[in-house]
Amino acid sequence: MKMNPNDQIRRLILQWFYERNANATSQYGKKGSATKISDVKKGLKEVHSLSQQQVISNLNYLIDKGWVNKSEIEKTVKVKGGTIPSTVTWYVISSAGIDKIEGESEFKEGGKYAGINIHATGSNVITLGDGNIVNAEYEALHSELSKLKNAVTQSSLDESQKLDVSVDIESLKDQLVKANPDKTIIGHIWARIQDIATIGGFIDAVSKVTPLISGLLPS
Q1: What local confidence, expressed as pLDDT, does residue 106 receive?
Q2: Which of 13, 44, 77, 111 would you call most buried, defined as having the most Cβ atoms within 10 angstroms of its Cβ?
């Protein structure tokens, strides 16, 4: 599988937040686990020579994925003649980010298949970066389905249609955990998605999924 060149940068950033949290003596401040963006950029430049552009673009990704938390604290600042409101933004590694580095924890919430030892089923399953589980044979299809879902959210469909198609896509992805996905279910769902693709304007994304899903459709 082709590696994303940004993954190494994301690992460095997440590791930096992890180490800051591990060495913190307070929640905020100079020795705090949470830090301001100026200190993030300064620290990553000093330790890993990352540019501001590399930090910001990949930090945004880590926040969106839930590996890093972003919060704002409002306070008042004294100025001549009174006070003015001020907002300070803080960044800190999330529990999901800590689990990403440390591995599984007994305190981690169970996923869709909590209580089931997936690896004991005999299926060749892998756990993806977002915590989803997929049979290794269908990893490429799972990835393209995720891209299709993103295309759906940016399409011309109304919000109700976007939700319906997104739920269908997630149902398809659930089938990909099995060693033998249900072709009848996949066929029905995929037909619905294809029917609405022309209206929504995500035909290109559908075309990339088609050759990967063809082998899982009813004869």
Answers
A1: 61
A2: 13
